[in-house]
Amino acid sequence: MALIKKQFSLRTRLFLAMIFLVLLACLLILGATFFQYQNEAEDYNVFRLDRKESQVQRQLDFLAEKHKLYTTDSIRWGEYTTDLNTITKIHKVEFSLFDLKGNPLFVSFLPLKVIANNYRLNNDILNNLAALKGKRFLEKNEDEIGKFQSSYSYLKDASGTPYAILFFPYFEDISFAENELKTFLQRLYQIYLIMMVISIFFALFLSRLVTSSLEKLRAQMDRTGLLQRNEKIYLKNATSEINSLVVAYNKMVEDLEASAAQLAKVSRDEAWQEMARQVAHEIKNPLTPMRLTVQSFQRNFNVEGPQAQEKMEEFASILIEQIDTMSEVANTFSTYATLPKAQLEPCDIVEVTKRSTEIFDQNMVSFESDVAQLEVSLDRTQWIRVMTNLIQNGIQSVPAKRSPKIEITLTSSPTVSIRVADNGSGIPKALKGKVFEPRFTTKTKGMGLGLGIVRNIIQSHNGTITYTKNKPKGTIFEIQFN
Fold first, then answer.
1. How many C-beta neighbours within 10 Å does residue 387 have?
2. Phi and psi (nearest 5°) for 70?
3. Which end of the chain, C or N, has fewer beta carbons within 10 A?
4. Which domains are assigned to the chain?
5. 8 A C-beta contact, residue 150 and residue 111
6. In what side-by-side order are the strands of the sheet with 365-369?
7. pLDDT for res 48
8. Stretch among 258-267, 318-327, 458-467 having the lowest mean pLDDT
9. What is the DSSP letter of 342?
10. Are 358 and 290 in contact (CB under 8 A)?
11. DSSP states along 399-414
């Protein structure tokens, strides 16, 4: 069995789409805010490093010029250690000085890799400074005290000649920045939470507003039917797309009304045609046995023969029954234009069934019963019609080269059952489902209403009719009373 995928409604899709867009916008704004804050913090720290380093360089240049320290060694610089420490305290920074060969002149703070190199700058740093042609060389360090930035730059005299190398570390105080960022993001989260709640209600309202017109259109379409009065839709302030659907629906309603009127006319015409065919069929059924009875009476009746009066009365009784049948059909059609309803009353089904078979050639039709009499609630006229139809259909189903043989058997146990077996051509498998449908026939003549009428009559008697294949040839119709 194929799985049916559950589809979300348009209202739900609009609602989820709007919430997703708001959520996505919030996340993007948060991400952009965090990224911007990080960039500003980094730019701020670089600016502070440049400012602090420039201040220290000016102090060192003043000290070197005042005491003529441009070409002196570490011993002479050592005489001014107090002045150098004073600079660190005034500016609250750390720094170290090296000569142009990387030897230490003054040490306040050094990374571990320089200390491990016997407090000397390695050749990579010296080469990088030389390659930068006097510009500052920056690097990021990671030590036991944490991460920090540092710069290496030349100290130059008034003529621009380098006289020392300044190592300047910058320790970022990120605790304040992180707290400020955390506080800012918390406030932003609260604002976005309020915005999300508002957006949910707004999205719900907007999705209902957008789909309300569609919902009204859908509800009206559900009530639309071919055989009823359909109302047009009129919407106020509808969008152009919804309005086009409404116009198309109203046009469909107009076309549907026109089609319903045309269909009603055709149905009435077909109903009257069907009724005329049924009445013609029902009137035609008694005519055939009447004709056969008259022909048989003409051949066999002898006025001077024994039991002439009894045969005359029997002949008249048969004709009167068939005439009554036609009269009842005609009267019913004239008053209500339908076939007569069953008027059930206790009757001897054995006698009525036998009487129905006697109007046919006894060489073709035989009747047997396991009881002599059996009283059943019947409409005598309609039961004669049933048996006449089944016998005539059986005879007409036999090919011209074969002699018809219709066997009728009545059994009373466990229920009343009547079997009508013929030796005709049978019913093809492809037509089994259409046997009792109106206008069904396998003959070249006839309206095809007989078996449909037979089934309706039997159902009105609270009975059922089925059929099976008769071996070796033909069909068996079996009627059972409940």
1. 24
2. -65, -40
3. N
4. 10-178 (3.30.450), 238-339 (1.10.287.130), 341-482 (3.30.565.10)
5. yes
6. 365-369, 406-411, 417-421, 475-481, 463-469
7. 76
8. 258-267
9. P
10. no
11. -TTS---EEEEEE-SS
Closest among 408, 416, 422, 394 to 463, alpha carbons compared = 416
Distance CA 329, CA 323 (A): 10
Residues shown for the chain = 482
Q: Could you tell me the two tokens for 256? A: 């549907």
Q: CA 221 to CA 20: how far, in whole Å?
A: 32
Strand, helix or coil at 425?
Answer: coil
> In this predicted structure, what is the pLDDT of residue 367?
93
Task: Provide the b/e sequence for 232-261 (b: ≥16 CB within 10 Å).
Answer: ebeeeebeeebeebbeebeeebeebeeebe
Interaxial angle between packed helices 380-396 and 450-460, expressed in degrees from 0 to 180 and rounded to the nearest 10: 150
pTM of the model: 0.37
What average pLDDT does this structure show over 166-189?
A: 72
Helix ranges, 3-80 (H): 10-67, 74-78
Nearest to 452 by CA among 464, 466, 439: 439
- At 147, is the secondary structure helix, strand, or coil? strand
* Cα dihedral across residues 420, 422, 424, 425: positive or negative: positive
Positive or negative CA dihedral for 81, 86, 89, 90?
Answer: negative
Distances (CA, A) of 349 to 221, 373, 381, 459: 55, 7, 12, 16
Among 464, 443, 315, 324, which residue's Cα sits nearest to residue 385?
A: 324
Mean pLDDT score of the chain, rounded to an integer?
A: 77
- pLDDT class for 2, splitting at 50, 70, 90? very low
Residue closest to 246 by CA, chosen among 257, 235, 256, 255:
235
Confidence bin at 194 (pLDDT 50/70/90): confident
Strands (E), 224-265: none
